[in-house]
Write a structure and sequence with these properties.
This protein is mostly beta strands and about 140 residues long. It has a single domain (about 1-135), classed as Immunoglobulin-like. The chain contains no helices and nine strands. Strands 4, 5, 7, 8 and 9 form a five-stranded antiparallel sheet that branches. The protein has a four-stranded antiparallel sheet with strand order 1-2-3-6, with no helix packed on it. It is globular. This is Fibronectin type-III domain-containing protein. It comes from hydrothermal vent metagenome.
Amino acid sequence: MKFIFIRNILSLGLLVSTIAACGGGGGDAVVGGGGGGGGGGNGGDITISWAANREAAVNTMGGGYIVYFSQSSGFNPGDGGVSSLNVPYVSGAAAAPTSAVIPVASSGTWYVRIAAISQLDAPGSTGGSESVASSQTSVNVP
């Protein structure tokens, strides 16, 4: 398995300064790719981990992370063709998980971005808050 070390994958900014749920992170992330795909462009799994965001609202019910992934470099989470995987806080856990396995349908280069989510509603919104997504990192799936 190939690993790529990325510094500060979760240098996430605050969406709204009144909530404490969406900033932080930092540290190293590890991305691994290419597991279990079979032959000829069938894809496989991408395993990614990141430094935890210690904000309370990320690490309670309704909080966690969203992992966005695409084969288009420079993508934004709202772009067409972008997939996402929710990584929610699980009741009773000390913190939201800081790793995920992303199933990808085809081989090639995949780009990944992560955003923290909180249970808190930003002023004027409904359903919680999401941080600005991290810088992208990439992994090649053979």
